[in-house]
Each structure stands twice: as C-alpha cells, then as structure tokens.
Amino acid sequence: MENELKIGEYNRLRIIKEVPFGLYLDGYEDEILLPLQYVPETYEIDGYIDVFIYRDSEDRIIATTLKPLATINQFAFLEVKQVSPIGVFLEWGLMKDLLVPFSQQLEKMSVGKSYLVYVYLDPQTDRIVASARIDKFLPNPKDIEEFTIGQKVQALPFEYTNLGIKCLVNNCKIGQLFKNEIFTNVKLGEVIDVYIYNIREDDKLDLRLEAIGLERIDSQKDKLLSLLDEQNGILYLHDKSPAEEIYEQLGMSKKDFKKAVGGLYKSKRIKLGEGCIIKL
User: Fold this and answer.
1) Torsions phi, psi of 263, nearest 5?
2) Which of 29, 98, 109, 113 could form a disulfide with 90 if both were Cys (CB 3.0 to 4.6 A apart)?
3) Signal peptide location in the record (predicted)?
4) CATH T-level assignment (fold) for domain 214-279
C-alpha cells in the first residue's frame, strides 16, 4: 500500500524537522528518528531521503542510511557474531545484529561461521528475523519459470557436503555442484554462473561450472586457438599439466582441455611438441 511504512525495506520519507540528535522523518502515522550519525551532509526540510527502516535494540522503529546485507524477503549468506539465550545474532551491516531464533536453526550455529538464511518480518512480533530453514521459504515450483538442461543460471554456494557444494540457484531452487566437477576454487557466499546438468525428481538441480554438450567443446577449441595466437603459436601445456595450471591459463577443466586438444589435433590445427602445443 502507498503511504504505508515498510519495516525491513527501503522507504523514501519526507524530512520534517532537525533536532540536535538527528532528523525526524514522516512515518505517516508517527515521526521516525534518523540518528545524527546517519544524517547526510546536505538535506532540506520537507525534502525526501531514502532510508532503511528497522527496530533498534529498544524495539523502537528507527531509520538509517546504512545499507544492510539483505532486506526482508531475501536470502543472504551471513556470519554469526554472537550466541544468546534466544538464538544467534548475525552480522548484516547495521548497528543491531540480525536474530536467528533457535526454532529457525537446522543445526547448532557457531560464532565465526557463515550460513545461508532467509530474512523476513515475523508477523507475531513485527521484528526482522532470519531463518536457516531455507526449504520452507523457497517458492512453489508452479510459481517459477521452468528450468531446462544446459541453462545458464546464477548460484550462491552456501554449504559443503559429502557430495560437493550445495547452492541456491536463482534464489528459488537448491542445486548441487559435485566434487568431480569442481576444478577451481569455489568460495561460499560468492555468486557464480553455473549450468544445469540434470533436473532431479525431487526438483533439485545438478550443476556444472561449464556449459554442457558439443557447443562447449567447440567454444573451448576456439579459446585454445585464441590463446595460441596470443602466445605466438606455442602453449606450454600438455596432458600431464596440473588441472589448476590449465584452469588458470584457459579457464577450463582438464577434461575439456584434453577433448579440445584432441579435436584440434585430429583436424590438423595443432601439433604436439615436447611439453607443449604448437599451432599449425
């Protein structure tokens, strides 16, 4: 609704008056304080300002120009700062940390470790809280666009498992990167581009770091030829080169490198030297 204050979100509010300890903003039903430390250098009475609205440690509605790492109805990968009798508190970029009640934890959450959580407004307390029970906040599959094999998507890696790394895909599905498909350093909490390799019966996704199919190998051949051109026609890589070295130079897995080299060799585009590849 218009002209309604939205807690846990950004609001554009009118500046009513200046006081020694900050500015008062029009919160429609009440005046809301923007504390002095968050007041911008320039402003005008009756002008407008964009602020984030939340409740402070004394449960008062308050404004800030700081930007939290997530607003309500968003997923975020956040670090635990403190364990308390009511739950754990996460660092999310504001003076007041974000609570995950014990009832919203899947496992015991530890200080210094980061977790994927969903930020929401508790309808009972009207407070912003977070939950690590991700599955219950994922949208109904009927309400999202259907995925396809080979589709490029964005993934947020958030948990190491025995199989590999669990990811949140496009903020709406859970996917898995398998150990044998991870050939570079994947950091938890950093969004990456991945490709859908399989859509399972449980509606979860199997993921790969590279595109699948013949199209991928053709692109890897082109990439290899381009690098050979840049290196005056000779590249000091071969089938015994470490996978890390291949990825660092070419941005491809060792398996794809060997396929690309084999294809180019058969088509007489390259020849194999002693510990190197030479363009013909």
Assistant:
1) -65, -45
2) 98
3) none
4) Arc Repressor Mutant, subunit A (1.10.10)
Write down the domain spans for the chain: 10-64, 74-136, 141-208, 214-279
Alpha-helix runs per DSSP H in 141-193: none
Per-residue pLDDT of the chain (280 residues; tens, 9 = 90+): 467 899 999 999 999 999 999 999 999 888 999 999 999 999 999 999 999 999 988 889 999 999 999 999 999 999 999 999 999 999 999 989 999 999 999 999 999 999 999 999 999 888 999 999 999 999 887 778 788 888 899 999 999 999 999 999 999 999 999 987 787 789 999 999 999 988 888 888 999 887 766 556 677 788 888 888 888 889 888 888 888 888 788 877 787 788 888 888 888 888 888 888 988 8
Decide if domain 10-64 falls under CATH 2.30.30.140: no
Structure tokens at 225: 């030829």
What angle (nearest 5°) sits at the alpha carbon of residue 177, between those of residues 176 and 180? Answer: 135
- Which CATH number does the domain 141-208 belong to among 3.40.630.10, 3.30.450.20, 2.40.50.140, 3.30.470.10? 2.40.50.140
Q: What is the dihedral of CA 269, 275, 276, 280, to 10 degrees?
A: -40
Contact 129, 120 (CB under 8 A): yes
